[in-house]
Design goal:
heterodimer, A: 310 residues, mainly alpha, ABC transporter involved in vitamin B12 uptake, BtuC, two-stranded antiparallel sheet, 14 helices, 2 strands, globular, B: 517 residues, alpha/beta, Rossmann fold, six-stranded mixed sheet, 22 strands
Chain lengths: 310, 517
């Protein structure tokens, strides 16, 4: 038990938190963009899974890591395009379309994996850790925090970039207006549908990247259903973070912490809690978090509502 | 001052399915005038203006502005030609600031918003010029309706518009705000702008416009200089027949007391006292009016009476039975009907069809329900009956009620409540949002209920409405009834004083019941 209270344990947990939060950071910040434009994409889970699979397959075939990540992003965009076609152009119910995308993601990746890749057995080379000079030499905290792969570091840049896009550009202003009062945008002479497509594609591209991270930076293997709810957790993060990119970063870290703790505690021989209970921690935390968020006032006014002219 | 022709709309046709919204409408607007477009709801005014702004595309016809034909269906083109509209439902994003709303949709999407300081400065400059008191960094959602409208008007000016179209701009304003708006329109014209003013309120049109056209059934039926006409003529043109400005009614009869309110008090949403000890009786064959400037406790009084908010003190008796403490459903079942103030919030469910809206209170009782199942035939027959009797304009009875105009929604709500044959009818704002022809009709229906022996309480901010049908008028001020007046137009000044809280005599009223005659 006393092991838990050591600096070493703390440092490792923080490092693992950041690493485990990374896919959720990508997916949730992407979803912030989508939801700010009024489109609720609950298909994140399926899109992440598609990204994870396509990234893995590309890596397996080509051995080219940047290309594999690009493929993960593009596959996410493609899945997002299917979602957008139904949810925006055809104006179908967004929840139903999102659920369909989730089923599609799970079914399609499992089918393709079993058909083509199940016998491969071996893993792929994953994104290498980059050692930041000096910082990684800090006692205790250096190694866990400053020997991460490039994607983990990039999560520091994502909130300011997306924040700038949303709050400091004409595009972002219009995008937020589309989520609040689409008719006003229409009357101002801008296409509501075009902005919603843009938002969904940005969101699903980031979700695809988050999925690719799982097979190309986290594990080196694809496993059926390996996102195991991360897409849904990202949806909860967005609500808890009140649709803010920076907020989503920090809330994702909070959930990453539960993943990290659950892993660390499982490895701790002195703790006698069934590992299933520990594994449930991130999900329990999601439920508790959503119970705590009572104020839904900040939600974009037309979230989930298709826009019809006149 | 009115110069040469600025704009001509020629022979515009537009239909939506089977509904003809515009049947060859033509108008001509001159430079530097206030041109009023008058007509009942559904006469085609808004559709015509939407076509002018490029939001809708006409099936036929053309629009010529300063000698150049407008490209149809292009809002950008309309704005380039200096045509802009202040919509009845504001096109402002509540979560953005005023300045952000002004730059929305302007310039390249990739533009970085580094010029907001300059935008704000320009807004302040324009705001000062017209005395509009618009603050560029205020969040729109924190502004009152009147302020939002000024923001909308300034937005149009900011975009360099010199032909302003205002769609029913006074519908949401208090009388004072209306005065201020009409003054502003005069200032704009003096500054070289041209204004198209859409309305169905005759007095405003008479007060502010230079010329007026009347639309009926998608056509322009009458155009004249405002100085050459009068409200009676305009009303006749709008409705297509003479309108009774004075409704005939039987002399008051003294029936027994149906509803008796004693020392009623209740709080507002914030928990502050809103009604402070109100007492009055309403008898059979009687319409009692409650006049007052909006916000003096009328809303809370209606909520308390209908069980939607708890009374903190006092009693309400209907046919001798105490209503205080009963649920709204229980009050509903007790021969108590209610036409609420805000039909969207309390009167109807917008996405539901007419049929289901009509049976909102009675869906689980015969004849609309049997053995736990809805009897759709009975519901449809009843709805069709109401729609026909009240001349509600609707494509069908199973369309969502939100597809109806506000006036037709209100007619259906009134029809529904009257059809319940209540002993007592509480009406909060009878004619809000409905046009002259319908207004006269609805008032006559309410008078019929009076002749049929009902007791009616009419809360209204429209004095004309109260004068037209009430037997006596109580004036409410800061949650107290501070006086009673006969419905006599010649005593308008006294009522005005009472509404402003100035008691003409020192008589203490409010805690003791006010009696008739």
């Amino acid at each position: 038990m006393e092991h838990i209270l050591t600096l070493g344990f703390l440092a490792t947990t923080i490092g693992a938190t950041w690493r485990l939060a990374t896919p959720i950071i990508f997916a949730s910040i992407g979803e912030v963009v989508s939801e700010r434009a009024g489109v609720l994409n609950i298909g994140l889970e399926g899109i992440m899974l598609i990204g994870a699979f396509v990234g893995f397959w590309t890596m397996y075939e080509t051995g080219h890591l940047p290309l594999a990540f690009l493929a993960a992003v593009l596959s996410g965009v493609a899945a997002g395009l299917v979602f957008a076609l139904f949810a925006i152009t055809i104006k179908a119910n967004q929840i139903i379309v999102g659920a369909a995308i989730n089923l599609l993601g799970l079914g399609l990746t499992s089918f393709l994996f079993r058909t083509y890749l199940v016998h491969t057995g071996q893993g792929v080379r994953i994104a290498p850790a980059i050692d930041i000079p000096l910082l990684s030499g800090i006692p205790y905290f250096g190694a866990p925090l400053f020997k991460q792969n490039l994607l983990v570091y990039s999560t520091l840049l994502l909130p300011p970039i997306v924040g700038f896009l949303l709050y400091r550009t004409s595009f972002g202003l219009t995008l937020r207006a589309v989520g609040e009062h689409p008719k006003a945008v229409d009357v101002a002479g801008r296409s509501v549908a075009l902005y919603r497509y843009g938002a969904v594609l940005i969101g699903s591209g980031l979700a695809g990247l988050g999925g690719g991270y799982l097979t190309l930076a986290h594990a080196n293997q694809f496993v059926e259903g390996m996102t195991s709810g991360r897409g849904f957790i990202a949806l909860a993060v967005v609500v808890f973070a009140r649709w803010s990119p920076a907020g989503s970063f920090f809330v994702s870290l909070l959930f990453g912490m539960f993943y990290a703790l659950q892993l660390q505690l499982q490895a701790e021989p002195s703790i006698h809690i069934p590992y299933q209970a520990l594994q449930a921690m991130p999900y329990l935390a999601t439920i508790v978090a959503l119970l705590l968020v009572r104020n839904r006032m900040d939600a974009p006014a037309t979230l989930g509502v298709p826009y019809r002219k006149a | 001052m009115a110069g040469q022709t600025l704009l001509r709309i020629e022979n515009v046709h537009k239909r939506f399915g089977a509904v003809i919204a515009s049947a060859g409408a033509s108008i001509e607007v001159r430079e530097g005038e206030i041109y009023a477009l008058l007509g009942e709801n559904g006469a085609g005014k808004s559709v015509l203006m939407s076509i002018l702004c490029g939001v809708l595309t006409a099936d036929e016809g053309r629009i010529v502005c300063r000698g150049v034909e407008l490209q149809p269906g292009s809002p950008e083109e309309a704005v380039r030609r200096g045509i802009g509209m202040v919509h009845q439902h504001f096109m402002l994003v509540p979560n953005l600031t005023v300045a952000e709303n002004y730059v929305l949709g302007q310039g390249s999407p990739l533009r970085v918003l580094s010029h907001m300081k300059a935008v704000s400065a320009r807004i302040r400059e324009l705001s000062d010029k017209y005395g509009l008191d618009v603050r560029p960094d205020a969040l729109v959602r924190n502004l009152s309706v009147g302020e939002q409208q000024r923001v909308e008007i300034l937005k149009v000016l900011y975009h360099g518009i010199d032909l302003l179209i205002l769609d029913e701009p006074t519908a949401v304003l208090t009388p004072q705000e209306t005065d201020r708006l009409l003054e502003l329109l005069r200032d704009l014209v003096a500054d070289g702008k041209t204004v198209i003013f859409i309305s169905h309120k005759l007095d405003e049109v008479m007060r502010v416009s230079d010329r007026v056209s009347v639309m009926r059934d998608g056509k322009v039926v009458f155009t004249t200089d405002t100085s050459a006409t009068n409200p009676r003529e305009l009303a006749r043109m709008m409705v297509g027949r003479d309108v009774l400005m004075e409704l005939p009614r039987e002399a008051a009869r003294q029936g027994e007391i149906v509803l008796s309110v004693r020392d009623l008090a209740c709080n507002n949403e914030l928990g502050l006292p809103a009604v402070r000890g109100v007492s009055f009786d309403v008898r059979r064959n009687e319409i009692v009016g409650i006049a007052g400037v909006s916000g003096n406790g009328q809303s809370e009084l209606a909520l308390a009476m209908s069980g939607l908010a708890p009374a903190t003190a006092g009693s309400i008796r209907l046919n001798g039975e105490e209503l205080c403490g009963l649920s709204p459903a229980a009050i509903n079942r007790r021969s108590f009907a209610h036409v609420p103030e805000d039909r969207h919030k309390m009167g109807i469910v917008l996405p539901l069809p007419l049929t289901e809206n009509v049976i909102l209170q009675r869906y689980n009782r015969p004849p609309f329900s049997a053995r736990g199942l809805l009897r759709s035939r009975a519901v449809e027959d009843h709805t069709r009956d109401l729609v026909q009797r009240f001349k509600v304009k609707a494509r069908d009875i199973d369309v969502p009620i939100q597809t109806l105009s506000g006036g037709n929604q209100q007619k259906l709500v009134v029809a529904r409540e009257l059809a319940r044959h209540p002993d007592f009818l509480l009406i909060n704002q009878l004619t809000r949002g409905i046009d002259i022809g319908a207004m006269e009709f609805v008032m006559q229906e309410v008078l019929k209920q009076r002749e049929a022996g009902k007791a009616i309480l009419l809360i209204s901010t429209e004095l004309e409405e109260l004068f037209a049908i009430c037997d006596r008028i109580l004036v409410i001020y800061e949650g107290r009834i501070i006086g009673e007046m006969p419905p006599d137009r010649s005593r308008l000044d006294e009522i005005g004083l009472l509404m402003a809280g100035k008691e003409p005599s020192a008589r203490s009223a409010g805690s003791e019941p006010v009696r008739v005659h």
